[in-house]
Design brief:
By secondary structure, this protein is mostly helical. The protein has helices at 20-27, 32-59, 63-67, 69-74, 82-103, 108-124, 128-150, 152-175, 194-220, 225-239, 243-252, 254-257, 265-290, 294-302, 307-322, 324-337, 349-357, 366-395.
Length: 399
Amino acid sequence: MPTVSKSAEVLPPPTERYSVVRWMHKNLFSTWYNALLTIMMLALTAFLVRGILEWALTQARWEVVSANLRLFLVGQYPVTALWRIWACVALLAFLIGMSWGIWGRTQRGGAIAFGALPFILAIITSDETSRVALLITGIVGVVGYTLSWRWSGALRRVSIIGWILYFPILFVLVSGLGADDSLLPPVPTNLWGGLLLTLLLTVVGIVCSFPLGVLLALGRQSKLPVINWLCVIYIELIRGVPFISVLFMAQLMLPLFLPGVTIDRVVRAMAGVIIFSAAYLAENVRGGLQSIPRGQYEAARALGLSAWKMTLLIILPQALRAVIPILVGQFIALFKDTSLVVIVGLLDLMGIARTVLAQPDFLGLQAEVYTFVAFVYGVFCYLMSAFSQRLEAQLHTGR
């Protein structure tokens, strides 16, 4: 039996750990110029943080947010039907908390930011009903996160089924179902607004544009000239015009293509978001398809797989895994680009902010209003980014 030399043995990883002082010496004060830069940046950071905290705690008038929190969250949605919105929010908090505990345990910063958001909003709101609903939402999210730590294996399938059923339930609850005297009377979409409208536009844009973008990317890779040309024309035409132009086209021209059919303004805006996002997503997916080595195609054909099975089981999963960062970056950009729907008369979160600033009691409070709006956008964008990083780690992207 051949012997293995000591030099060829697999050595365990090093166990040396740095203390806080040693880490600071190695990374912040290793040389005199690094120490100088560290001191300068610390002084600048302290100066900026002190000024921001002094303004936020002593000078800012946050009553503009507390008095209009319902407008920021749901716009002019009827007060009598707000329980439907809070039911959707509580269910969403439970699903996010449960999913985060199952798949994102290492991303504790995102879990803390998500869990703290309802409690922060409950503190600053002046409406007693909204405060109670926000507190219940926060508690439900924490319960979902706690349960996932104890029964993560059993709740995986429950979480997946819950996410699949959530969006149909959301639209039924928000839009209503049945007559005006039923349990869920319909709510006109012209009353939807604020964060509710922003999230609906984003979710619909992501869910519907993703399969369309994948099909366009596959069509552009097709060897059939007609399909290839049609996909190329669509992608290059939509990517060559601004998003505002697509929104106006959807608002003004979509009814012309469907004469006799009444199309709601919100639905037309959703169609514009889907059309625009699918073109950019198609190019991102096409980049992933082009990164797949030729040997993968040859190996799939050697196994006797048909073209569709090769694409769905071998090529497309690898391509999507390679472009996860840019896909999530596009979804984050889409979430922020929904603020442009104010141009076509819809009041999303940014539109509500402009409406609030027009109130006589809150003139000149742009800093407070836009700081709050930036905080809300920042929390949701960070959640998407943290989920992307966790997904990349689980799929071993880059290896």
